[in-house]
Amino acid sequence: MTGGRGRWTATLIAVAVVLGWLVVGGIAGPYSGKLGEVATNDNAAFLPTDAEATRAQDLSAGFLEKETTPALVVYERTSGVTPADEQRVRADAARFAQLPGVVSPLPPPIVSQDRQAVQVIVPIDAAEGEQIRQVVHELRDIAGPDRDGLTVNVAGPAGLLGDLIEVFTAIDGPLLLVTLVVVLIILLIVYRSPVLWIFPMLAAGMSYSLASVFVYYLAKHDVIKLNGQAQGILTVLVFGAGTDYALLLIARYREELHRHHRPWDAMKTAWRGAAPAIIASGITVIVSLLCLLLSSLNSNRALGPVAALGIAATLLVMLTFLPALLVLGGRWAFWPRTPREDQADPRAEHGIWSRIVGFVARRSRAIWLVTAVALAALTLGLSQLGATTLGQSDLFTSRTDSVAGQEAIARHFPAGTGSPATVFTTQATAQQVAQVAQGVPGVASVRPLTQQGQAGPPEENAQPKVVDGRVELQVTLADPPDSDGAERTIRDLRAAVHKVPGSDSVVGGFTAINVDTAAASTRDRNVIIPVVLVVIAVVLALLLRALLAPVLLIATVVLSFLATLGLCALIFKYVLDFPGVDQSFPLFAFVFLVALGIDYNIFLMSRVREESVKRGTRAGVLRGLAVTGGVITSAGIVLAATFSALAVLPLVVLVELGVAVAIGVLLDTIVVRSLLVPALAYDIGPKIWWPSRLSRTSRAGDRAGAEVEHAR
């Protein structure tokens, strides 16, 4: 009778938990499709918070009635523009000026010196925000398609931003769909059950919905910043990490169903065994991601709390909603491979891992030496990494309209036309600063902003506009504004104008933002990477109650990270033909690879320690590897596959991040966690738990226990 009451009580609790979460899901579900409404993808979202370019942007507000983002409409005819072409350009420009969001009057069209192209600068009100994409779309509609040998493209900062926003709109639909399909296929392969996959998929979907609510409202009220990059990573991170946690819990639950008659009792034991590792893993990832708040770049600062919220929501759901679903599902959820209460050794279901365990036991020292040397050899590819600021033509995996337009501008105009650098200086030194700036190699022209609010050939006797004793000079560069040459010019320009006594010069503009972003990225790597390592070391020390084991685990993950970067550098250069990686790539890759890579070591070593207490360290290593090998490998494959889904977005930086995380996770699960770590732990023996009491087990007794375990 008591057993019956207990069974009904357990069922009622599980039903209440599931119903409660379904209510939450019904409320939260719609928000997963609304994140794009609160995302910000303009240049300000990526601007360093404390940089010269930021000060220049603040100063520019006083010189303009409205802050604008220029679109550059370029008409090109290689045989030479005709009078009819020029008439068409003037007619189009008149229509451009009438568009909502366009700041009139427009500067007159500019004909190139070779008379093969005409350029129209269209200032768009920066307050349009995401609607800049719509204005750019209307500009392209007015300009029309290529006609009779005359090609037309819309480029410039606004054209580029419009194309980027177009890409990020794919996040709510295609990226989520691809991620779901990838996870579904892998779960079907792993479980070979037409039922069981439903539970982790429901839980992962609930996690994403819950995270979306918090991210939506925090972004809406400007507590956090959300951009398309963070939104895309949130999607794959929640589904990837959530499925990982689900796989670990379900594997332990299945193991306990062989030992317990009632699913509720099996789940209680499984939860106690798996939850500490899952919680430690989640906390490690959350704290590592929050270290991005130390960044001076808003784009990095945006990603940290957004992704951390995703992991926190995933932890909560996977430790409450998923267990309740599994309890209600009972044994039939595993059909047709239904676990029976037969006290079977869990290793019986992991035949291949029993063979790997035997290999590790026989050749532990050779295994960890060979794998460490192999990973070290892969790090040699780092010489091919080439971290830089990707140019506009390098941002996309396909050739967009803005890229084609920028190439046309570079062929016929000073490539920096339409996106000048700005120099703010005192009125008294303006003429001297202009002369110094003109003498900098790479500078095509220097002209003051006049009272009429335009830079260019001023009207006769037109005076420079003076605001609070300062004058704005607009500096047209000879190189494309997103090129390495333009960035060198900006550095030289700053060095030159800063030397003018009393000028208090400040240099800004699109290229200056790139220069300051690159400098901030270098600073962020130097600050954040050591902090993340310290955080992970502390979490591991608390979990494993040891000091030596955390140091060794971190060393293996860092080695895996460097090997991943080396291998990726070769793939990007010689297989995918990418020009390099963005300055932000090494930091993002580090945070995700190290934080996620350490997960698998946590899953393994927490079980190894649990078994070591019962059987001795070496026997514990063999037992832990045997029973966790399959599930952790499956988890790694899921996470690798979900991050590779980023490749559906035609942005080089996200494709590179997806490929890097996928390769790194596979290295961690297949090489580091399956061979390097267990072989190293087995070879070192009890001393790996130094300075805890567990480290003082006799070596002879420990090795004898290992031989017994291996014989089984």
UniProtKB/TrEMBL annotation:
The keyword Transmembrane helix applies. It is a multi-pass membrane protein. It is found in: Cell membrane. InterPro entries: MMPL_dom, Mycobact_MmpL, SSD. Its main location: membrane. The chain crosses the membrane at residues 12-31, 167-190, 197-219, 231-253, 274-295, 307-328, 366-387, 527-544, 551-572, 584-604, 625-653. Pfam families: MMPL (PF03176). SUPFAM superfamilies: Multidrug efflux transporter AcrB transmembrane domain. Gene3D superfamilies: Multidrug efflux transporter AcrB transmembrane domain (1.20.1640.10). One of its GO terms (cellular component) is plasma membrane. Keywords: Cell membrane, Membrane, Transmembrane, Transmembrane helix. The keyword Ion transport does not apply. Residues 233-328, 554-682 form the SSD domain. Belongs to the resistance-nodulation-cell division (RND) (TC 2.A.6) family. MmpL subfamily. This is Putative drug exporter of the RND superfamily. It comes from Micromonospora inositola.
